[in-house]
Amino acid sequence: MSDPKQTLTGQQVADAGLDDWRLVLGRLRARFATDDFASAARLTQRVGAAAEAANHHPDLDLRYGRLDVALASHDVGGITSRDLDLARVVSALAAEEDARADTASLQEVEIAIDTVDADRLGPFWAAVLAGEVSGDGVRQSTGDVPTLWFQDTEEHEQPRQRFHLDVWLPPEQVQPRIDAALAAGGTLASDAEAPSFWVLADPDNNLACLCTWQDRS
After folding, report:
1. Over 80: is that where the pLDDT of 1 sits?
2. Does residue 187 belong to any structural domain of this protein?
3. What are the start-end ranges of the H helices in the chain?
4. pLDDT surpassing 80 at residue 74
5. Which one has a higher pLDDT value, 33 or 160?
6. N or C: fewer beta carbons within 10 Å in the chain?
7. How many domains does the chain have?
């Protein structure tokens, strides 16, 4: 894992021993809880300085008593040893500031739309969301809205659900989320693709998928 341009698999990332971090929707993510805003701001400054020194820049989201950090190597479109190295530095800084890693609350939501012709829909949604068509979805560089992903499907007559939510989670958080959904009146529609994703249905049979990095190429 020494080549800084070599992308790593989900399993390689999981095996790296980064206890504070989880791979969620293509980014290495951590959330550090602090006692107050000043502590979170101080940690943000220190992480920013470390990122400048490494010439590798994460996305930082500062809130009251919390700093979220997301890492990816955009030049190669994945996670590399550069991300692992900086993650270790950030964790060390967080420990020095007595910040506590909160992996249980990490998640990212993606909106999925079933379509037989993504090329036809892409320009419209890029215009509506002020984003750009990228691969099999529409993404916005500022990150203000979730990714819109075009899921290939066969032609079918309406009515059929077109939109659904993909909720990306750390693998260990899937079963608790399933249990909560079932307790709230939902059903497990399918686990045929687990551990890549599980399909849940609400009482009206609207669907959502719980997704992880596992079992993906």
Report:
1. no
2. yes
3. 10-14, 37-54, 81-96, 118-128, 174-183
4. yes
5. 33
6. C
7. 2
State how far the Cα of 132 lies from the Cα of 214, in Å rounded to an integer: 27
Query: What percentage of the chain reaches a pLDDT higher than 90?
Result: 81
Both structure tokens of 142 = 């500022």
On the question of pLDDT at 217 being above 70, the answer is no
Among 83, 101, 119, give the residue marking a domain's end.
Answer: 101
pTM for the whole thing? 0.90
In a domain, 3, yes or no: no
SS3 of residue 52 by DSSP: helix
Q: Token pair for residue 6?
A: 């070599």
Q: Are 97 and 112 in a shared domain?
A: no
Q: Is 115 found in the same domain as 197?
A: yes
Residue spans of alpha helices (H) in 59-164: 81-96, 118-128
Residue 133 in tokens: 């068509």
Number of H helices, E strands in the chain: 5, 13
Residues 81 and 115 in one domain: no
Look up the domain containing 119 and give its range.
108-211
| CATH number, domain with residue 117 | 3.10.180.10
Asked whether 61 and 68 are in contact (CB, 8 A), the reply is yes
Nearest to 34 by CA among 68, 70, 66: 66
Q: For residue 73, what is the DSSP state?
A: B
| pLDDT tens, residue by residue, 94-120 | 999 999 999 999 999 999 998 888 999
